[in-house]
Structures are given as structure tokens and as C-alpha cells.
Amino acid sequence: MQPFTFHAPTRITFGADTASSAGEFVKELGGTRTLIVTDANLMKAGLLDKILSSFKDDGHFEPVIFSDVPADSDVPCVKQAAQLAIESRCDSLLAVGGGSVIDTAKVVNICLTYGGDLLDYQGLNNLPSRLHPLLCIPTTAGTGSEVSLVAMIKDHAEGKKLLFGSRLLAPDSAILDPALLLSLPPRLTAGTGLDALTHCLEALAAVSTSSSLTDSLSIEAMKMIFANLERATTDGANLEARSNMLVASTMAGLAFTNAGVGIVHAMAHATGGRYGTHHGITNAVFLPYGLDFNRMAIAPKYAYAARQLGITNSTDDAKGADELIRVVVSLIERCGLPSCLKDLGVPEFSEVDLEELAEQAITDPAIMFNPREASAEDIINIYKRAY
Ligand SMILES: NC(=O)c1ccc[n+]([C@@H]2O[C@H](COP(=O)([O-])OP(=O)(O)OC[C@H]3O[C@@H](n4cnc5c(N)ncnc54)[C@H](O)[C@@H]3O)[C@@H](O)[C@H]2O)c1
Ligand SMILES: [Fe+2]
Fold first, then answer.
1. Residue 97, H or E segment
2. Which-ligand-closest: CA of 232?
């Protein structure tokens, strides 16, 4: 067995309506004045109402609210929220939202804790000391950011996403309240669910860094996703399907944050950074191509997963891998997600676009965990086929 380290420092609490205890959770973490990071849609939809009431108990300062996080948050948004946190003397953070909100809160915490320019802390393992307490309440089931050690923030000037990665970035506590996901529209439900599925499949494929711990989380989460994503997409009010997707997404988050992702994420990051496409939906477009590309390197692992998932009982690895790819493609179709970049609104590529995208993808940190080395030519080839 190869050596490994597994981080899971976040306390995870699951249950319908658990979000209404958010104030108590922050108090337990030692927070007195909290910056709540969220977005305008969620405020308007009333998702914050019970959470805000939970801060009304005596002993709590009124929380400070920043609700201007855009989808795919960016550097100016982080700076604005950080300024508010610093001016308000906040000592703790609560993120309520999707991956964009949670990643914003993580990087705001960097600014609040250390001061200075956030760009000095980008990259891997550049954080000097513990951060302020952070509680996360995800309202999408996909990114796993509520337990992950990374955050992605868009830098418009560079046309790419900046990565912040450190074990110190893991949130202290996560509340998984499936009732908050009932309002998530079908396309986002499916797209975020495909992000979680991609986390499972890429963590599984990251053979040099995966372990029995990450493999078992990936496979169990995949079982839950195959059994519940279509239902959560077509019947958004189904609390059981939402619950399964939410827990599966957190499990997939623990798997990928320990094992890594791969070529699909590298290509989705390059595409999202340039064209603003949704992270999970972009992963869904690249996933069949990424699985096909890696198939020759890790067919036995795919086949093992296919057998564990009950998709096949064939002992032929090539057949098992084919079956796994087939059910993934079928799930994407059944959830009504686009199968090509053109349908995502990506404009036709010039040769220069393709070269720049390939350069970004092969230098993206995600690709270092991919089981098969990809050249710029391989990446360009996938871009052309996926268009
Ligand atoms: N840090 C990590 O580990 C990690 C992993 C994967 C992705 N990401 C990042 O996460 C971001 C994507 O996050 P996302 O897919 O969760 O989407 P998102 O946070 O960008 O949200 C998308 C939209 O969904 C809306 N929304 C969210 N929850 C809702 C709800 N319950 N009801 C109604 N509307 C709701 C939001 O208002 C927003 O308009 C990307 O920036 C990506 O890079 C981070
Ligand atoms: Fe992802």
C-alpha cells in the first residue's frame, strides 16, 4: 500500500433545519462578531431568515452581512467583503451559499486574518498561521468547498481563476441542511451534481494520491449520486433526494481534496476562467472526454468502480470501464445537461484561443494528479471534439 495523509478537519453536521442553529455554532467556535457572506438571490429567496434569527440570542453582536457575491466570485468582490469585515472588526465568518460564496468567505478570511494583498497568498501552502473561525452552510450540492482545503477566485485581469490551497483553509464547521436546497433550479441541481460526480471520478483516477479512504468515499458518493441526482433535478422538492445529494457532495469533497482532481477540472478551469461558464456544467461537458482519455491508463480502477456500483459484473476491465463511461453519459443526458461547449454559449475557437486554453489547462494545478500525462495537442484535440 502506498503512503498517504488524509485531512478531514471540518466538523460536519447534517439534518433538515439544522441551519437554524448557525448562531450557536459560531458561538461555539468562539466568534462574537461575524461576517455573513452570501449572495443577493439567496437573501431574496429568504434562505437567510432562520439563520439570521439564530444570531438574535443574547450575548451575540449583530452579524455584519455581505450579500454581493456574484456567481464565480472575483478579486474585487473579495476585497470589498474583506474591507467590510476589517472595518466591522469581525472575528469569525459564516458562508451561506454555493461554491462561489464559500470560496469568497475563505479568501476574505485570509485578508481579515493577515491583512495585506490577497494575491500574496495565492498558490499552495502559502498561509502562515491559523485563520479566524469559519462556518459554512452550502446551498448547492456539488463543490464540496465546505470541507475542502482550496478556494478558487476569478482574476478578470488575467482571465483565469486563482487557486488558494492550504490545510488551514478547511472550514472549521459545516452545516448540511437539505431544506436550503429545495429552491435550487433543475439546471444548477444537475450541473452541481455533475461537479460532485467529477470529483469522485477524478479522485478515484488520481492513482498516485488516492487511498482506500478516498476510494471508499468516492464510490459510496457515486452510488448516492447515481441513485438521486436525476430525482433531485426533476423533483426539486424531494427532501430525500436533496439530502442524499448534499451528503454525497460533501463526501466527494473529502475525496477530491485529499486525492486531487484531474484533466476534466483543468480544462473546466481554463474554460470557466475565460468564458464564464458554470463550473459544474462545464465539467459535465468534459467528463466523458476525460474518462475516455484516461481509460487506457486506469481501466482496472474504472472497472472496479463499475463492479462496486453494480453497473457490471464483468471481470473484463475494458468492458467494465466502457460500462462506467456509458452510465455517466446517460446520467448527463437524463439530467438535461449540454453535451458540447457550443451549447454552453462558448464562441467558436480560433487557433490562438485553443493554444492559450491548452497552455492554461496544462499548467493548472489540477492536472498534476491526472493518471495519464496530457500534451497541449491532446488538450486541443479534446477542446475540438467537445465543441
Ligand atoms: N473550493 C472548492 O473546493 C471548489 C470546488 C469546486 C468548485 N468550486 C467553485 O465553486 C463555484 C461554483 O459554485 P456552485 O456550483 O455551488 O455555484 P454558485 O455558488 O456559483 O451558485 C450558482 C447560482 O446558484 C444560485 N443558488 C445557490 N444556491 C441556491 C439555492 N439553494 N436556491 C436557489 N439558487 C441558488 C446562486 O445564487 C448563484 O446564482 C466556482 O467558482 C468553482 O470554481 C470550488
Ligand atoms: Fe469541481
1. strand 92-97
2. 1
